[in-house]
Amino acid sequence: MTQFPASELILNADGSVYHLGLRPEQLAHKIITVGDPDRVPKISRYFDAITHEVRRREFVTHTGTYKGKNLSVVSTGMGTDNIEILMYELDALVNIDLQSRTAKTELTPLTIVRVGTSGSLRAEIPLGSHLVSVAAIGFDTLMAFYNLKQNESEYYVSKRLQDSIGLSFQPYCVKGSTALLESIGFDMVQGNTLTCPGFYAPQGRQLRVPLRFPDLVAKLNQFCPFGFKLTNFEMETAGYYAMGRLLGHEVLSLNAIVANRITHQFDTQADATVESLIQKVLERI
Questions:
Q1: Quick one: which of 43, 168, 255, 267 could link to 131 by a disulfide (CB 3.0–4.6 Å)?
Q2: Is residue 130 located within the same domain as residue 97?
Q3: Phi and psi angles of residue 253, each rounded to the nearest 5 degrees, phi first
Q4: Domain span at residue 10?
């Protein structure tokens, strides 16, 4: 059996995984993730009890119980680079024996639900909406380093988007968990999310620096091969879905729509929009 060397599976002095700072007993198998570390206590305050609180870098974890359910809430920071770290180390906590440094023979699938904020790419999706990402397209290059298997329609959509924008690389497209979509996101706006490697130019925002693709938002809004419409921007979902597929975990991304890039509006009640999404997830996960 292959033993993972210390340079590849890095553990802290207390036996916790390197970046998250967690040991296996500190993690529940149902996990809510958020980008902002300050949002973790906004979720765990609803717990009946908190059994573990761990903070390491931008990764803050609260584990406890909510109405008899064991749950963890973990913050990730922004970007798919952080999501790769998160997903790999969550997987290691349940699917690798950290003492022997070997993979377990029986693998445990995790349930991971992202609760985040997002900007709408469509005028008909109003501020304050809760949107569930059926699929995501990654504008980042994380999957250039993995052998991600895409079905024919996923590959076709990503290739068409590359040609439409004029990108020098092909994005990747991957769907989320159908089971979680049906059990958690069933009454939400269903959409296809564009995951970007930045907040400004990759999402078509310009302040002092000219854009390479000045008509990016308009092209994304008009992109519709075989009815596949892009609905919103953010910075993590495609990484979640791709890593979930590679590692065998059930992953779903939920988005509180707090901006509309077509109508140029921002939700003045954004905190309330996020709060209502949190409460919905706690009841359904």
A1: 255
A2: no
A3: -115, 125
A4: 1-108
- Model-level pTM? 0.97
Q: Are 89 and 18 in contact (CB under 8 A)?
A: yes
CB 114 within 8 A of CB 195: no
Radius of gyration for the chain, computed over Cα atoms and rounded to the nearest angstrom: 19
Q: Which helix (H) or strand (E) holds 63?
A: strand 59-66
What's the structural domain count of the chain? 2
The residue among 108, 137, 155 that closes a domain is 108
Same domain membership, residue 58 and residue 138: no
Domain final position from 108, 137, 158:
108
The reply to whether 131 and 248 lie within a common domain is yes
Strand 102-103 versus strand 59-66 pairing type: unpaired
How does pLDDT run along the chain (285 residues), one tens digit per residue? 789 999 999 999 999 999 999 999 999 999 999 999 999 999 999 999 999 999 999 999 999 999 999 999 999 999 999 999 999 999 999 999 999 999 999 999 999 999 999 999 999 999 999 999 999 999 999 999 999 999 999 999 999 999 999 999 999 999 999 999 999 999 999 999 999 999 999 999 999 999 999 999 999 999 999 899 999 999 999 999 999 999 999 999 999 999 999 999 999 999 999 999 999 999 999
121 and 101 within one domain: no
> Is residue 261 a contact partner of residue 121, using CB atoms and an 8 Å limit?
yes
- 124 and 94 in one domain? no
66 and 154 co-located in one domain: no
Q: What are the residues facing 190 on neighbouring strands?
A: 132
